[in-house]
Each structure stands twice: as C-alpha cells, then as structure tokens.
Amino acid sequence: MRCPNCNSKDIGKIGSHQFYCWGCFIELQVNGEKMSVYQVEEDGTLSSLDDLFFGDEMVQQELPQIHASS
Question: How far apart are CA 42 and CA 34, in angstroms?
Fold first, then answer.
C-alpha cells in the first residue's frame, strides 16, 4: 500500500480500516470501495482532505492495491 499523498510505503495500521502515513502524517480510512483521507490537526482532530484527493469521483484503480495488502 502506498500513500495517495506522498507515495510513501511507510503506512501503519491504527484500526481495522484505518491507516496512518508516517511520511506526510495523514490518516486513511478504507470502507469497502470508499477511501477517505484526513489531516491530523495539532489538537488531534481530523480534517477531511477528500475534496483535494478525490473530487466528485474516487480513483477506483488504487483501491484493489489497498485491499490486497491490508
């Protein structure tokens, strides 16, 4: 699995469907065929970055790689 932001392979699993990128410090959540990307703020809250990464439609080609390696 690679980070959709920085392309790093340094991804840690923090929950059953949650991952954290140590390269750029974002959190990824995968539920079925939907991926959400969040920035972790200084106070620990999450801010969605989905509009920056996916716009109206998610790129479906990246999801099989995530399921295969999670």
Answer: 26
